[in-house]
Amino acid sequence: MAESTEMDQLLSAFKKFAVHGDTKATGKELNGKNWAKLCKDCKVIDSKNVTSTDVDIVFTKVKAKTSRVITYEEFQKALEELAPKRFKIQSKEEALQSMHKLIEGKEPANVGVTKVAKTGAVDRLTDTSKYTGSHKERFDESGKGKGKGGREEIVENTGYVGAYKNAGTYEEKTKAN
Fold first, then answer.
1. Which CATH architecture has domain 1-103?
2. Where in the cell is it found (predicted)?
3. What residue ranges do the domains of the chain occupy?
4. What is the pLDDT of residue 113?
C-alpha cells in the first residue's frame, strides 16, 4: 500500500511540473525546461554529482528521438538513470527510493516572481493628481486614464474636400463673408 501512495505522490509532482508555465499543457508530458525545473526545485541537481548538463543529457537519452517531451514512464526511466549518480554510496534500489523521496509531493517553486513595488517613490510618481501640463490632460478627475482621447488631438476628417480638415461646406464659408 505504501508503494502505491508513493507512486501517486510522484505522479502528482510530475503532473504539477508538466503543466507549470504552459496553459495548453495536459499534464501527461513533461518538456525539457520543466524537467530541468523539477530537478532544480527538488534538489536533484546538487552541482557536485548531478549538474544541469547531466539532467539535459538524461532527458535527451530517455525521450523518443523526434519527441520534445517525455511521458511519465520515460520520466521514471530518467529518475532511474540519475539516481545512482546522485546517491553514489547507496545501492541502485535505495538510490531510486531516495530520488523518489526528493520529488514526492513537491510542486514548482515560484522563486523570482516579480512583486509590485510599493515604495514612496513609486506612489509619488504614479499619483496622477500631481501631474501638470500636457500630462494632466491625459487623466480625468478620478485619476483614470482617458486613453487615446487624452493623448492626442482628434481631428474630424469631415468636409467637402479630402485635404480640407475642418467641418463645413464651401457655401457656408462664402455666406459667412
1. Orthogonal Bundle (1.10)
2. Cytoplasm, Cytoskeleton
3. 1-103, 114-153
4. 62
